[in-house]
Amino acid sequence: MDLPRQQLIAKVFFTKYKNTLGPQVIAFIEDILEKHNILDENVAESIEHLAKEYNRQDGPSDAEMVVRLDVLERVYEAMQNAQSGTGEQNGVLDVESHLQFIDAFEMPSWHWSVERNGFERSASKLTLSGSAESRVLALRDRFSVIKQAVLRNENFSPRPFRTVNQETTLKLSSTKDLLGRAGLEFLLLGMLMRNQEGHLCLEDLDGIAHTSEGFFFEGCFVLIEGIYNDEEIISVNAIGHPPCERRVQTRSLYGHVDFLGRGVTSVLEDVRFHFV
Fold this sequence. Notes:
This protein is of the alpha+beta class. The chain has helices spanning 5-17, 23-35, 43-54, 69-84, 132-152, 247-254, 267-272, and strands spanning 109-113, 118-122, 185-194, 200-203, 208-211, 221-228, 233-240. One of its GO terms (molecular function) is DNA binding.
């Protein structure tokens, strides 16, 4: 059963932008929908477009911001003026209406939360010179995001029903799983680095594993498959990059996260600009 328009308006603004709306604001948005004779199947898209334009005002939106009626009226008026202008004439795309310059210090800072298993907005202010802690945090976030994408891959996701012809699901191990298990084969995900002695190692969040030489450079996050021997070194049999993930799958999970602070695109906008 479809939601009433008032509930749908409040849901769209809060779900993606954490905005709260007063009764006057909701009534104003309802008037807009009625004024333009928006069909029921297009209501959600229209509200989302209005919410995105509103949250583009005055830099990144506050996660707890209450929508102001005067600002929303100004945003709506600007949208009307843009539609009546000469943004796209005769099939020619106006680059200035789509190209935006974003201040790196105004972008919201997002970190991966292991507890919440998702992105969490950081309240700390960005600085020109990062600290040693920020570098470690960036690498941890990068590892966690890549690991989540790997675990979502069909080769690593256990299937509810398995047929005889289906291959066994791959299983990721951690460096801490190697201790006392010499002679066994493991599949690890980590970053290639060199220790204090200059030896090539694979590092994850739990520790370090020494590896044999290969053709991948330092700083790469790679998947390695090999046998852990008595000398506490993994003899690598195969090494490769983590599997890629299609944009549509990533968007279904994190499409609501505004990484740049300029609003998120709707599914229809992606289709329009051929982002698949």
